């Protein structure tokens, strides 16, 4: 993990823990995920991915050449994605949660068509290697406006921090002139605020289903675009403080970037089943 990512995660966690010491003493519910103060989760998504990125060159008439990392650069359609989260109910109605997704992919391919990254061109037939790293940290504050012993509904505000780093390397040319082996790439950190809704229904003290959706569409400074995230899970409380779950999750980020680091576009999607373990106390 990059040093910047570690700093972000540490700061978010520290802020959550220091903001209050109140305990959710009056939360009602028959399942631990509805009542316990702290809940942690770690698991893996077996995700179907689609990654389209492009970076504009420095010439006035340049356009963004979108590159399909799966079809053009040999990336597999399926990938394992690390997914971890932590939730703190700091009062009867409110909670704060932190989610983290880590995606690190590499591939090599012989190009079947010409591609361009900024002012650098890679011709069909060239052997190239590529990497794509995506880290997403999400801080969310939720308010449960309806609670019973079996179910709850709520909504809140969140902030996604998306760190994307893409690299392409191989024999290349610039403006028709061969420059030999060249590595091109960019990275950016984009803030994506969102609104979200969530719900849960406990069938018993052992079995609960949960779901949530997050959405964003706006222009903020150097960034514009949208985000849609959805997930549904079934969790079984195997032991007093440990449970296991299965779910299905979807995420799409479609963003345009105009910064000194990157002037381009990114459209990234993953969806697939998730297996995870929960810890509550």
Question: Span from first to last CA?
Answer: 28 Å
Could you report the average pLDDT, rounded to the nearest whole number? 87
Inertia-based shape: elongated
- SS class: mainly beta
Low-confidence parts, pLDDT < 50 over ≥5 residues? Answer: 15-24
DSSP strand count: 13
- State the major sheet: 10 strands, antiparallel, barrel
Q: What is the name of the CATH class? A: Mainly Beta
Side by side, the strands of the main sheet go 1-3-4-7-8-9-10-11-12-13
What is the number of domains? 1
Please explain how this structure is put together.
The chain has 2 helices and 13 strands; from the N terminus they run ααβββββββββββββ. The protein has a 10-stranded antiparallel barrel. It has one domain (3-280): OPCA outer membrane adhesin/invasin (Lipocalin), CATH 2.40.128.100. With 281 residues, it is mainly beta. The two termini are 28 Å apart.
Give the SSE map.
Elements (H helix, E strand, L loop, with lengths): L2 H16 L13 H4 L2 E18 L11 E2 L9 E11 L5 E17 L4 E3 L2 E3 L4 E21 L3 E24 L2 E26 L4 E14 L2 E14 L5 E17 L4 E18 L1
Antiparallel strand pairs: 1-2, 1-3, 1-13, 3-4, 4-7, 5-6, 6-8, 7-8, 8-9, 9-10, 10-11, 11-12, 12-13
């Amino acid at each position: 993990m990059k040093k910047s990512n570690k700093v972000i995660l540490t700061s978010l966690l520290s802020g959550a823990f220091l903001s209050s010491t109140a305990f959710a003493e009056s939360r009602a519910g028959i399942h631990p995920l509805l009542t316990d103060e702290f809940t942690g989760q770690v698991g893996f998504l077996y995700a179907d991915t689609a990654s389209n990125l492009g970076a504009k060159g420095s010439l006035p008439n340049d356009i963004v050449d979108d590159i399909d990392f799966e079809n053009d650069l040999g990336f597999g359609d399926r990938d394992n994605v690390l997914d971890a989260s932590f939730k703190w109910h700091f009062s009867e109605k409110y909670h704060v949660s932190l989610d983290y997704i880590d995606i690190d992919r590499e591939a090599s391919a012989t190009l079947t068509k010409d591609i361009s990254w900024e002012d650098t061109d890679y011709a069909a037939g060239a052997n190239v290697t590529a990497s794509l790293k995506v880290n997403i940290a999400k801080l969310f504050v939720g308010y449960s406006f309806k609670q019973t012993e079996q179910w709850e509904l709520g909504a809140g505000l969140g902030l996604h921090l998306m760190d994307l780093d893409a690299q392409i390397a191989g024999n290349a040319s610039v403006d028709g002139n061969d420059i030999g082996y060249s590595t091109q790439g960019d990275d950016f950190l984009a803030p994506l605020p969102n609104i979200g809704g969530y719900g849960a229904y406990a069938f018993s003290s052992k079995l609960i289903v949960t779901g949530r959706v997050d959405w964003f569409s706006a222009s903020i400074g150097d960034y514009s675009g949208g985000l849609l995230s959805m997930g549904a899970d079934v969790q079984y409380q195997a032991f007093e403080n440990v449970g296991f779950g299965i779910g299905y999750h979807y995420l799409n980020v479609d963003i345009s970037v105009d910064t000194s680091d990157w002037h381009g576009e990114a459209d990234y999607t993953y969806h697939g089943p998730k297996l995870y373990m929960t810890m509550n106390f």
